[in-house]
Amino acid sequence: MIFIITIDIYGLSSSLVNAQADSCSSNLSLSNSVPFDTTSLHCLAVWDSQGFILRYLQTNNASIWSFVVSAPADTNSYIAIGFSTNGAMVGSSAMVGWVSSSSNGTVGMAKQYYLSGSSPNLVKPDQGSLQLVSNSATIISQNSILYMAFQLQTNQPESQLLYAVGPTGVFPSTPDYQLSEHRTMVSTSINYAAGQSASESPYSGLRRGHGILAMLGWGILTIIGTIVARYFKHKDPIGFYLHISLQSVGFILGVIGVICGFILNNHLNTNVGSHKSIGIFILLLGCLQVMALLARPNKESKFRKYWNWYHQNAGRILIILAIVNIFYGINLTGTGHGWAAGYGVLLGVLFIITIVLEIRFWIRR
C-alpha cells in the first residue's frame, strides 16, 4: 500500500541552501499538509546526534495515537522509526519515509516495513504489526526539515522505539521498494505518560560482558602467556607455571565470553555468521591446546619436536584469529571506536615489548 504524500517543494529546495534543525520550541505548522491535528502534540528530542524529534499524542479517541517524526532534510536519506517489543531491530515493525529527486520530479513516500531479519531481503515492505489509520501516513519536506506523520490504531504503542537513518542518496524504489541497510541507528525507550525518552542498547550488559571477556581472555592473556613461554624459558619452572596460569585463565575467560556470545545471538537473532564462525574455531583451537597439554611428551621423547611444532603454530593461529575477530566484533557494534583504539594501543605496546624481548633473546643465544 502506498500512502498519500504531500511535498513542500519550497522547503525541499531551501534544504539545499540552509540546513536547519527542528526543536521542541519550534512552531509546528503542518495543518495544511497532515490529515490530522498536530497542534497539541507532546514533543521529545529523541536522538540529538541526528536531530530527531518525536511528537505524539493519544487523541480523544483513546485507541488512536498520532505521531510526527522530524529530522534534518539535508541527510539526503530515508528516516525511520521502529516499534519493537524488546528493543531489538529484528521482529520490529517500522515506518520509513523519504523524499527523493529524479528526472520525473520530486517524490516522497512513507511505507510500513516488517523487519523479519537483518539483511535487506528480509525487510518486507507493506507488512508489519502496525495498525495504520487509513490515509494518515505522509512525508513532508518543509524549511529544510523532513516530517513523517502517521496515526496508529492501538490502545498503547510499544515503548521500545528504534530510529534509523539510511545511506546517503539511496532510496527504496519500484517495483519492490527494497530497503537498504541503515547508515546509523539507535534504540530507545519512551514513557508516553511522563514524556521521557532514553537511549539504550538491547542486552547492553551482555554485549559488554561478551566483548570484555573475549578480549581479555583470547586477545590479551593468551598473547602475554605466549610471550612468557618464549622469552622466559630460562626462568623455569616459574616461567612454565606462569605460562600455564595465564593460558588457563585466558581460556576460561574466553570460553565464558563465547557462551555470552551464543546467548546474545540467541536473544537478538542478528546476522553475525562470520564473527560467530571465527569465534567457534577459536574455541576449538583453545580446546585442542588444552588437550595437547595433557598429552605433552617428555623432553627426551622423539615426538616432542612435533608436539612443539603443533602447539606453537596452533597458538599463533589462535592469536591471529582472536585479534581479527575482536576488531571485527567491535566493528559490528557500530559504536566501539574507542574500544578499537584502546585495544589497538595495547596490542602496539605488546608488540614493542615482544620486539625488545626477541632482540634480547637472539643476543643471549
Automatic annotation (TrEMBL):
Subcellular location: Membrane
Pfam families to which the protein is assigned, alphabetical: Cytochrom_B561 (PF03188), DOMON (PF03351)
Binding site for heme b: H210, H243, H275, H311
Keyword terms: Electron transport, Iron, Membrane, Metal-binding, Signal, Transmembrane, Transmembrane helix, Transport
CDD domains hit by this protein: Cyt_b561_FRRS1_like (cd08760), DOMON_DOH (cd09631)
Domain DOMON: 50-166
GO molecular function, one term: metal ion binding
InterPro entries noted in UniProt: Cyt_b561/ferric_Rdtase_TM (IPR006593), DOH_DOMON (IPR045266), DOMON_domain (IPR005018), UCP037471 (IPR017214)
Membrane-spanning parts: 211-232, 244-265, 277-295, 316-334, 340-363
Presence of the UniProt keyword Methyltransferase in the record: no
One GO CC annotation: membrane
Gene3D superfamilies: 1.20.120.1770
SMART domains assigned: B561, DoH
Domain Cytochrome b561: 173-365
PANTHER family noted in UniProt: CYTOCHROME B561 AND DOMON DOMAIN-CONTAINING PROTEIN, OS01G0895300 PROTEIN
Protein name: Cytochrome b561 and DOMON domain-containing protein
